[in-house]
Amino acid sequence: MANFYILTNNPMVEEKYPEITEFEEDSTVGDIFNHSRDAIHLGANLINHPLAGSIKPNQSPYKSLVLSDRKGDLDMFSLTLIEGANQVLKKLGPRRRGYAESVLEDFQVIDLDLLDSAIDGLPYEYHE
Amino acid sequence: MRLEIGNILIKDIAFGSKTEVKDGTLFVDKDELIEAATGGDERIKSLDVYLAKPGDKTRIIPVKDVIEPRCKVDGKGNIFPGVIGDVDQVGSGRTHVLKGAAVVTTGKIVGFQEGIIDMSGEGAKYTPFSKLNNIVIKMEPIDSIKQHEHEEVIRLAGFRAANYIGEAGRNVEPDEEKVYETKPLLEQVKQYPDLPKVVYVYALQTQGLMHNTFFYGANAMKIVPTFMYPTEVFDGAITSGNCVSACDKNPSYVHLNSPVIDDLYSRHGKDINFIGCVITNENVTLQDKKRSSNMTAKLVEMLGADAAIISEEGFGNPDADLVMNCNNLENKGIKTVLVTDEYAGQDGASQSLADSTPKGDAVVTAGNANEVIDLPVMDTVIGHPEVANIIAGAWDGSLREDGSIEAELQVITGSTNELGFFNLSAKTI
């Protein structure tokens, strides 16, 4: 049994990793950040960086974060990162328009690819 | 390692019946270039070539990569080792450069796009590539191709094109010559024993699709930090597979002309002893970031450096690598200077980076990518003008009906380049 999970609003991630994904279908990137922050306060460690690549967090509608199942002391490093990411999101402000379906698919592919990089580079203490 | 660079100054470009350089004009045999760039890749549906010269009322959008044509005339290997041809060790011997010419690749890769080069008008002031004679490769792959392969197909076509054009400089007498040399470490240290020893920490963007950089053809995501002779980049040891963040990605052209390395050499033996480079990556997991930044600091310490220049590529996540590298080196007593750009909001009042450290007290900035600019209508658009509405740094209505564009500086290729290749900066007021 895996000792980590993925919090995401990206359907492509849910499809690829159904066993270990907490899928929040209608969540925004901000929701994913906030729910991860809540989990971190309950003791989870953040495994991948919340700001992915060079795609701005208000540009892609998708976000996938990898969190440990750990319950225990608050990991300040994880908390600092997620709060920092939230600050960046607030600074950049919301996008006011939607994307075409094909564009949404491309954002899903890139989000999944960056997540795959994280799963490939998973620290040894974690297992699927 | 000693490398002679011979610059052949290209003042004009034109199509011709033979690819050659004559009196400063680069003539290109279009059909032969198309064949060379296609390289028999069956995944390419169409490939066409356009010329865009400084002062033309031309816009290129979306820009993928900009590549300088070079050729190796003496010494081991060829330009872009591991990408074009074998993976021989490069960085020594003699290399000819068609200075003033560039290959620019364009074509959609994914639905959201970015990267504008305007050859004249307001936008031209914000990109170094408007000053070049550009040979634009527009290509579309076959319909069934998926995103990963699409990126690879267009990337490789660009290098094949640059390689083909670079060959035109093989037997031409260069207009100017520069010599760069770094000796093996112990000899290099002895050469200028009284000067402070400086290492360049060269961070490469390596987070996945459209965020990759290659070292001798290998995806740098999979490397641990390693040493590099600075001259290796001038022969194309580092190539870009980076398609996002137009303003602050490092196109292959910028790696080939690394301004940090060039400037460090210009002070080498005068007020510093530039002993070499450490290349490192920018990965997605925090463990990878810690491993790479710890190892970077260890290598810089092993080299015996007194100081280091650290550059990053991209925004957000890479800021964490920049800050970790800074902290780790400063904690070892090695002085650092950071090179970055800023996302400080349209009014410039917000915090500029996604991460920060009090130890980062010497920082060079390449400008605020959120600055709003207005781009006039152009007579010719090469590429896909409609994507102006969905590029990063644009918003719905960015592309006006008349073809003009209002958007943030981040849409312009190379505008806030984080190796300091361009001339923008920002001031604290």
From TrEMBL, chain B:
Protein name: Glycine reductase subunits ABC
Active site residues according to the UniProt entry: C243
InterPro entries: Gly/sarc/bet_Rdtase_B_asu/bsu, Gly_reductase_pB_sua/b
Entry keywords, A to Z: Pyruvate, Schiff base
Molecular-function annotations in GO: oxidoreductase activity, acting on X-H and Y-H to form an X-Y bond, with a disulfide as acceptor
Pyruvic acid (Cys) modifications at: C243
Highest classification ranks of the organism: Bacteria, Bacillati, Bacillota, Bacilli, Lactobacillales
